[in-house]
Amino acid sequence: MKILVPVKRVIDYNVKVRVKSDGSGVDLANVKMSMNPFDEIAVEEAVRLKEKGIATEVVAVSIGVAKSEDALRTALAMGADRAILITAADDVHTDIEPLAVAKLLDKVVEVEEPGLVIAGKQAIDNDMNATGQMLAALLGWGQATSASALEIADGTARVTREVDGGLQVVEVKLPAIVTCDLRLNEPRYASLPNIMKAKKKPLEKMTPADYGVDVTPRLELVKTDEPAARAAGQIVGSVDELISKLKEAGVA
Amino acid sequence: MTEITREAMDYDVVIVGAGPSGLSAAIRLKQIDPALEVVVLEKGSEVGAHILSGAVLDPVGLATLFPDWKDKGAPVTTEVKEDNFYMLSASGKVRIPNWPMPKLMSNHGNYIVSMGNVCRWLAEQAEELGVEIFPGMAASQIVWDTNEDGSPRVAGVVAGEFGREPDGSIGANYEPGLELRGKYVFFGEGVRGSLSKEVIAKFDLSAGKEPQKFGLGMKEIWEIDPAKHREGTVSHTMGWPLGKNAGGGSFIYHAENNQVFIGLVTHLNYENPHVFPYMEFQRLKHHPMIADLLEGGKRVAYGARAISEGGYQSLPKLSFPGGVLLGCSAGMVNVPRIKGNHNAMLSGIAAAEAAAGAIAAERAGDELTAYETAIHEGPVGKDLKPVRNVKPLWAKLGLMGSLAFGGLDMWTNSLFGFSFFGTLKHGKSDAEATGPADKFEPIDYPKPDGVLSFDRLTNVAFAATNHEESQPCHLKLAQADVPISVNLPKFDEPAQRYCPAGVYEVVEKDGKPEFVINFQNCVHCKTCDIKDPSQNITWTTPQGADGPNYPNM
């Protein structure tokens, strides 16, 4: 069985996100970017399935600017066999919307015919949490989202999901889409020897036009704002003082 | 501990550090002979992530590498248009005219740059030439070999080790990394590099030299009101707020995109252990001249890095069996020019030329003495030698005396090639210069207002630094009790104050003081390794990709 893993290059989770002065979005100029952490978990899960002999090939695909190749090289270093880069934007500030990504992935699935797509549940840059679901709808496949455990047996995927108040277990028939939550696994390090080897693994370069997909944005970004600054705290000397301060503030 | 086995890879030249010196060396090697196998290791998550510099760049090194650098699109575009020196008092300023300053201090023909972005660009050029660059891979150990006569030589480095547990044991995701072996190994780690320090000690490279001197540079990037922005303007200040407490001064550079690079350098030879360089920097911004400039603006990045200031007489021997020290791993900053990047690049070029010549002559693993000669007799030596007395005069005479005599000395040196002072000594190391706490008054610093000035931890978030928690602490104490048993009573443990990232704290636990190291906050400036009066702290590299993630620094 072949596994397809879509990965996105996003602003690194360590970076203090900053809104551009004109409010048109987040400033990404010379900012550290890396693979979306949920996608790393997806790659790790796919590679583990290959190591267990359940999968035969892991193909990583990324859609974005040409530099998304970096995220694919990381996936290859982690153990993916080959990669497809779909260059869909010139400017790092152009985000390709979930529907366009899902349409492109639909076409990639048509060509690659994987038995399973493992994706991150969402990208940490825009938190849409939509691509996996949209792809499932386009393909007419089953979907199991936010997986915290995954077992593949007898043509089905058995997926554990962390829901309010406990665990929910769902089974979907393969082929299917599974999206990963944080606790599914702990991704391995991309080791130096493997990064060296990854430079030699095959990477196919495509464009949305090759697949006949229009990636023009359909959503209008109205405004991007930074969260309001938190007001300074106060240290109070006694319970009485606390109560009187709370009363002053009108909360007690 | 179990024996670790590693794969090994052979290269012609292994370069530690993708800064201006290492990348220039890599580029030059490939320009001389494209068949040379060259690898560059960088501990930052990407090239530029750990680069912090003012910076006003003298493009001489860049022009040596690429005579057509302007056409190649180097991010070196903001030419210096105006160059001001101010002497500050708490609320006033006096402009020092440019005419009494020696020509070498003029910034005519220099550029305001983000050195991080220059390095990103240099890395692209290097990769196009076939250099292998591996960011996120920290070189953590030296690989030693033994010559036939039993003497040691550097044969390579270990890089890319990941996944040790906090106690040093091997974790579930452990990756041993690789041994990268080279005919020559170049250390371009910057100031107080951890492996460079080991090499300097092993081969006693500083024997007969003056101790290296340092400064701590802190920098913020501000986006300011376009109406107040004057692209290409360079200002330096001296005097307030450091005053008599410490040597140093500030820089204010108007870069592109309405950004201002503002920073304060504090010389680390200060005696008063109550000096709090970070708070000095914060109060600097409340000076009316600077407050007016920043008002309505936004701080977008923060960082800090130690600077070498010892100059010519502190340069260690640069070559040793199997490799060389580049740039500020040796210490090539020109103090009065407030610049070192040009020398870093020139040193990389000189080392590359020496190594390429040696490899062509089928040599390997020996000393590149041609590099040593090229530095002392070439452009780097010519840049550093005439200004060698400025820093010791500053330390001895204070600010005003050094302005007069240091200025005079630079004039006689640059006009007649001689000095009334000969070559002055630095004397004590910065750690030894620290005086006892009870001899000095504590300094009352104003509380940051959250608008122009910020508390340390808030600002550290703007360095985007991070360290995986489940790894050994990379800040090693030789003796665990020294901070509390010696440094606290004698020096009021200055680590609490000299660290620009708030890594070190003394907290009370069960009524007793306890020393805490928050290594996750570290911005890799190396100040602790330099300034700890007991010389008890050793900065080692954490896992690759950890540390700050500087944009546009």
Features:
A: 252 residues, alpha/beta, Rossmann fold, 7 helices, globular, B: 553 residues, alpha+beta, FAD/NAD(P)-binding domain, D-Amino Acid Oxidase, Chain A, domain 2, 4 domains, eight-stranded mixed beta sheet, seven-stranded mixed beta sheet, 16 helices, 24 strands, 27% helix, electron transfer activity (chain A), Electron transfer flavoprotein subunit beta (chain A)
Structure description:
The complex is a heterodimer of chains A (252) and B (553). Chain A has one domain (2-222): HUPs (Rossmann fold), CATH 3.40.50.620. Chain A is 28% helix and 27% strand. Chain A has 7 helices and 11 strands. Chain A has a 9-stranded mixed sheet, with helices on both faces. In chain A, 40% of the residues are buried. Chain B is α+β, with helices and mostly antiparallel strands and 553 residues long. Chain B contains 16 helices and 24 strands. Chain B has helices at 20-32, 60-65, 115-128, 194-202, 277-284, 288-294, 327-330, 341-360, 369-377, 379-384, 390-416, 430-433, 456-461, 482-491, 495-498, 527-531, and strands at residues 7-16, 38-42, 56-57, 78-79, 82-88, 93-96, 111-112, 132-135, 139-146, 152-159, 162-164, 170-175, 178-187, 214-223, 233-239, 248-254, 259-267, 298-308, 319-320, 323-325, 475-477, 504-509, 512-517, 537-539. In chain B, strand 11 (162-164) and strand 12 form a beta hairpin. In chain B, helix 1 (20-32) runs parallel beside helix 3 (115-128) and helix 8 runs antiparallel to helix 9 (369-377). Chain B starts with 6 loop residues before the first strand and ends in a 14-residue tail after the last strand. Chain A binds chain B through residues 12, 14-16, 18, 21, 27, 29-32, 34, 186, 188-189, 191-193, 195-196, 229, 232, and chain B through 7, 9, 45-46, 48-49, 114, 116-117, 120, 132, 134, 137, 159-160, 162-163, 172-173, 175, 177-178, 223, 258, 298, 300, 450, 461-462, 464-466, 549, 551-552.
